Amino acid sequence: MQPLILIADDEKSIRNFLKVSLETQGYKCLEADCGANTLMLAASHNPDILILDLGLPDIDGVEVIKKLRAISRLPIIIVSARGHDREKVEALDAGADDYLTKPFSVPELLARIRVILRRHSSDPAALEQNKSEFKIGSLLVDDNKRRVWLNDDEIHLTPNEYKVLALLIKHQGKVLTHKFIIENIWGGMLDDDTQSLRVCMGNLRRKLKEDPAEPHYIITEIGVGYRLADE
Amino acid sequence: MKKLWQPTDSNSYNENEVLAFQKQCIQHNKPQFLTNISLLVFIMLVCTLLSIFLKSIDNIESNVVMVYLLGVIIFSYLASGYVYNFLASLSGVLLYNFFFTEPYYTLEVYRHDYLITFLIMFIVGFFTSTLTMKIKWETFLAEEREQRIKALYVIGRKLLSVKNSAYLAEISAQEIAKQFSADVLIQFFNENNEIRNRYVAGNDLFVDDKERVACLEACQSGIPCGFGTKLFPKTHGYYLPIIGQSGVLGIIGVVFLPAMMPTTLQTGFLETIASQIAAVLEREKLYEKQAETQVQVQRERLRADMFRTISHDLRTPLTSIIGSANTVIDNYANISDEVKKDFLHNIYDDACWLNEMVENILHITRFDEGRVKLNIEEEAAEEIIAEAIGRVKKHAHNHQISTNIPPSLILLKADGVLLTRVLVNLLENAVNYTPEGSAISVSLSKRDENVLFEVSDNGPGIAEENLPHIFERFYSHPAKTYGGRRGTGLGLSLCKSIVEAHGGQITISNTKPHGTAVQFWIPAKEVHVDAALNSDSR
Fold this sequence. Notes:
Strand order of the largest sheet of chain A: 2-1-3-4-5
Number of domains of chain B: 3
Distance between the termini of chain A: 23 Å
Strand content of chain B: 5-15%
CATH topology of the largest domain in chain A: Rossmann fold
CATH topology of the largest domain in chain B: Heat Shock Protein 90
Order of helices and strands of chain B: HHHHHHEEHEEEHHEHEEHEEHEEH
Largest sheet of chain B: 5 strands, antiparallel
Number of helices of chain A: 9
CATH superfamily of the largest domain in chain B: Histidine kinase-like ATPase, C-terminal domain
Strand content of chain A: 15-25%
Radius of gyration of chain A: 18 Å
Oligomer: heterodimer
Strand order of the largest sheet of chain B: 2-1-5-4-3
Helix content of chain A: 40-55%
Largest interface: A-B, 26 and 30 residues
CATH architecture of the largest domain in chain A: 3-Layer(aba) Sandwich
CATH superfamily of the largest domain in chain A: Response regulator
Helix content of chain B: 55-70%
């Protein structure tokens, strides 16, 4: 079955080119030009993905996400204008899955859609299997034994470093905000202090022998958070 | 109350004031009172002994009277005060009566004409001593006045050379404190009656509620309040508003030491200083207004320049986009797919270029309007570099970008998004102005408390004569980019604004054997951004 994608943007030209690009990739598309329509279509058609522009004319984008999250786990990719970083982080914390900054390229959007579809379509059995062992590039993680290998050499991570890596793996391809990671790893003890997180990330990157010019595993999203590379 | 200091007025003084002064001396200086009484006893004793000696020589009574009068005058010169004059005259008469009129060693008199002598002696004693006292007082006043005039002259000259209001408050408070050996508060207000500058010379006795109320009253009513006035006389401080053409500009608060009523001399002195301060403040205000207008004019001109340049720069790629799209639409059936694709690529490239430019313009206008609020957070420098490289790499497949990052993590307090923009602009320049295949290197290091970034390439470098202007807005490298496009002259200027807003510095130089290196540093710790921003908002 073709995945159904709901495009919510008030600009007709943007909806048009998105629709054409997505349909050529074999997705089915629905269009909404305002927040009310988006909510209605999302409820009635149960799409597989929502591409949501944060600047809809009637309802604030973050509000749309909150309303949707109350009733469904529909994956949401938000699209925001550059310079609205705070809004972006707010939307991610409200439950959006990924974000793109305008103007974005279509291949980038398609890549994000593929990641989300793969994550959400994988059946529970496959997930269970993935859980114990995980491989990306030359990185191998055994979650049962809590051991990590890089190019067949075992690398030793501190408990927190391992927890961060495991969290990134669990949400592979998804952007995790600083707040989300801190809450999951340190609990409420760290508040908004991101320094420990940055130090932890710095160490993790070094242990994974990441090249800053071409990171293979951990991708930094300045002002937002981190994601684990997917493709 | 006198409005201004009037030197012609110097011969008159307020009798009540002298009285008040005397009274205070007695009331507040018990030890001094005792000293004066013992001095009186001593002088009278000396006079009596001298008189006994004189009388034993030639028995002329008039000498004795003269000796006592002399004693009274000497005493009144040393201890000023009507009470003292009275006491001295009286004791002189009594002693003369006791020791030198018959019957000796009693206060009785046989000859009634002596009563006249006593009376005259007392009156002469009291009168001359009072005159002596007044002469002394006048000398004192004249000296004080001279000192004040001198001080006023010195202060006036100092105030003229003052450059800003904070310094003005400091200087005037210190000078007044020096004059009165008192604790002095100077406060200036802005248009919204908020405290703009505050300076206290000596102890800050001006903070409790009572003092504040008096101070506020003085500001609002525009008349002196506090100690020594009718309004709030229970406070320690005397508060004098500084009044300019546009109302109350500030306030002078003085706590006199010891707690003496301020004399008209002192208040007059303060008023003169207040009016001088007001003049300086008004002058400064005018100067500020003028400077502001100038900045405004310059900003308007810059803005006009910017619009002109931007419209020109925008029109070039737009012409190309419109032309390409139009050609494809009009000749859709007649041109091959290959050509169509080529046109679409052109449109795509031009649009990307426009997008970069618009982003820079947006940042720059925000800087110009002073609307930039740095979103300072603790960032890892290497993450910023990674993000910038990631963004540039998408369309720089034919350049080799390498990094040189130290093993230890470098954290800095900065606006990550803006700093990424700096690096993106520098990397874009490096990509655009070097031939394909060139190597670009980004390095990071920490020196003392500064984080140093460097973007260098091994391209042809920049002509030396262009280097000094490279950070100027709209100054575009005369050489074309390797993509055949002209630069906008905005990128580096924005980089400079951002780096300086963070309290850092950016420099550019050519490297050996060939290439360009741009270095910038930013303090690792958070900086106060206001000052840095102001320097930029031309």
